[in-house]
Amino acid sequence: MAPPPGGPPDRAPPVLLGTTPESVAVVEGFDGWVEFRFDEVISEGGQPSFGLGTGGLERLITISPDSGVPRIRWKRQRIEVRPKFGWAPNRTYRIEIAPELADLRGNRTRAPFVVTLATGGALPATILRGRAVDWGTMKFQPRALIEATLLPDSLVYRTVADSAGRFAFGPLPAGEYLVGAAIDQNTNRRRDGREAWDTVRVSAGTTEVGEIWAFARDTTPPRAESATRADSFGIALTLTQPVDPALRLGPDSVDILVLPDSVRLPAITALPAAVHDSIYKPIDEARRAAAAAQAKARADSLRAANDSTPADSAVAEAPPPDTTRARPSQLRPGGTPTEADTSDKPTQARPPISPRLMIRVQLPLPDSSRIVVRVRGVRAVGGAIGTVQTVLETPAPPKPAAPADSTTRATDSTRTTVPPRPGADSTARRPRR
Fold it and tell me: β-strand 166-172 against 263-264: which pairing, if any?
């Protein structure tokens, strides 16, 4: 059945009319279904619902604390929910319908619907606020899975962060919490083993959680995926896990052997990529700038020696424009440049993490060689420590360009061609006498 044709199309998302029981209520011995009533028919989703968390509604509805997939009954304009293992007495439950709930025309909601129900005891009043950060990208993580574990009962309450990584969920029972943020890649509302996560302990009476920096963890030691020559004195190793940013390895932990004679190249250090760049990048830039200045001075001296123009007739070149000066739109009323807007950046100062490990050597790396690289004591950001070994193949040096052929006869620029007289046919043959 459908409304008659004609009229404006329906572009409004479903509107919640009410719930049974009402939110933030204490119902002693409750053993029924929590009902959500909407103003129009709700879509069941495009996937079947078999109680495995793969159905359309099962992905959107979360009951916590509960370890199983909730039981859901779809009744057109109503949705009835209850835990898989039933309601426990004297416990606070949180039933949440995440955004993206759709009607039959595909209009989706933008805000969650939450019902807080207590089956006994005191009415909860704690609200936890914070933000989830992906440490790998140094950005806030949208739709991150947030889990708050009540200690010491280990009751887990779940919610999902918004599009900016923020979360504020409650009311929850008072007590000490272990709040975690996970990057839910498969959107199953559960933290899987390969997903990045981290936790923060929040004492009783505290509502501000702060920023939670999620990163991938692994119990196995890191391994090498590839090795490349960064420059003449650097080797870049790409590992299977991010490197601990606090890692500092000396020459005793690095072995560099040139095959086939196993000639040892002395190493200086092995550092994470960010730390290595902060130390050696200014040195390399200064070295390149000094080489460029020497080349320019040599070229200027040769030009001055070969220049036959009198010195008093030389015209001074105009200085290059000052590109470091800020535009008027970037100036404060006092005249100083404004800082970049950091409202969308994390407030905590943490070093970036990367799976790249940089090795610095004392001598230049030879060309056209196979080099064995072995590093001991490599610690991943998750804490696993192991030995990394791989083989680096350096490319051959580029071939110099072939010189120009000096034996080719040059065109005679002094030879002139006499033009024919007007009216004369240069192709006509003179008659014989």
Answer: unpaired
